[in-house]
Amino acid sequence: MNIHLTFDYELFFGNNSGTVEKCLIAPTNALLSIFKTYNIQATFFVDAGYLLKLKELAPKFQSLQNDLDTVEKQLLAIQEQGSSIQLHIHPHWEKARYLNGNWVFDMENCYKLSDFEQVELEEIVRKYKTCLDRYVETPTTVFRAGGWCIQPFHRLKAVFKELSIQVDSSVIPAVKFASDHYDFDFTTAPQKAHYSFDNDVCVEDENGYFTEFPIAGFRYSPFFYWRLYGLGRLFPSQHKMMGDGLFLAQPKRKNNQLSRYTWNHVSCDGYYASKLEKVCSLLVKKETESLVIIGHPKGMTSFSLKKITEFCKKNHNKHLFKALSASK
Ligand SMILES: [Zn+2]
Fold first, then answer.
1. Would the pTM count as exceeding 0.90?
2. Fewer CB near the last or first residue (10 Å), C or N of the chain?
């Protein structure tokens, strides 16, 4: 089986973005050191809007120049380790401001690409990709939408083709969520390791230009979430996130998770990492071709790093840990 470990490389988008050091640099270095030990390649979906904003404002603010320098260095280190950098887009950076040393986000009608008019949307994809591609040896071809909000896909189709973005990894089959900011519904997505599509990420089309590598899903029990939300308070040294910011709220999602079985991604973050081994053995039994696991440097904890290490140690000789790319 091919195992694709993928990490969305980004700050927090709630009322506190957190620091570059704690959300990105330190946890990513910890991950790279694990990957180096086991000679594993992963994929980092880099928040290109953030990078572009940093470049824009660095000449005005020394602190942002320092952030940019540190991030640029790490993007090189990721590639030197053999891992891949691909495109992640959070378009709310369009309206982000830097005030008194903090990022201030206005998410109103700009959290997802579909909030923008067609011309604007295409321009954002072009300029974010161009910005990120300056940091990579071969131009990026793989995409993950910020907050998984890739729908409706037909609005992205032309600009993706123009830019040769051929692969997407935003879909989590069986999962849906809508709020003031978020809007995705993958309940009808094919339950397959990967599939071709053209107009709609949830509809397989053998002749489609694009390939979807969906993020693996798992049906979590409410008890899992009781533990997930409780452990951070009870045992902060093991379960407190390395990232020092605050998430954008996902209203009602938590109540739902605590009261019934819910589908969600298979993830390297925090307590989710306790399921890695179980999901992997389940999929091996089903003879699945590939497994895409999501994660975020900011979501790493001592516990998750320990679980990821165990997972890599146990599986690096049994399975192929590969970066996602357009060549299958
Ligand atoms: Zn993201």
1. yes
2. C
Q: Which residues surround ligand 1, an ion (CB under 5 A)?
A: 8, 10, 146
Instruction: Give the separation between CA 159 and CA 187, rounded to whole angstroms.
Output: 26
- What is each CA distance from 199 to 85, 134, 152, 202, in whole angstroms? 25, 29, 9, 9
Report all structural domains of the chain as residue ranges with CATH numbers, in order of start.
2-321 (3.20.20.370)
CA of 144 to the centre of ligand 1 (A): 8
Q: Give the Å distance between the CA of 290 and the centre of ligand 1.
A: 22
For the chain, percent helix, then strand, then coil, each to nearest 5? 45, 20, 40
Per-residue pLDDT of the chain in tens (328 residues, 90 and over written 9): 999 999 999 999 999 999 999 999 999 999 999 999 999 999 999 999 999 999 999 999 999 999 999 999 999 999 999 999 999 999 999 999 999 999 999 999 999 999 999 999 999 999 999 999 999 999 999 999 999 999 999 999 999 999 999 999 999 999 999 999 999 999 999 999 999 999 999 999 999 999 999 999 999 999 999 999 999 889 999 999 999 999 998 888 899 999 999 999 999 999 999 999 999 999 999 999 999 999 999 999 999 999 999 999 999 999 999 999 987 5
